Amino acid sequence: MADLRPARLSPADVLRVGGAGLRARPTRVVLSALGIAIGIAAMVSVVGISTSSRADLDRRLAALGTNLLTAGPGQTLFGERTHLPAEAVGMIGRMEPVLSATATGVVVDVKVYRNDRIPETQSGGIAVLAAGPDLLATVGGAVAKGAFLNDATARYPAVVLGHEAAERLGVATTGEPVHLGGRWFTVVGVLHPTPLAPELDTAALIGWPVARAELGFDGYPTTVYARSREDAVHSVQARLAATAKPEHPDEVEVSRPSDALAAKQATDETLNALLLGLGAVALLVGGVGVANTMVVSVLERRAEIGLRRSLGATRAQIRTQFLTESLLLSALGGASGALLGVLVTAAYATYQGWPSVVPAWSTLGGVVATTVIGAVAGLYPAVRAGRLPPTEALATR
Question: 310 Cβ partners below 8 Å, 6+ apart?
Answer without folding.
Answer: 390, 394
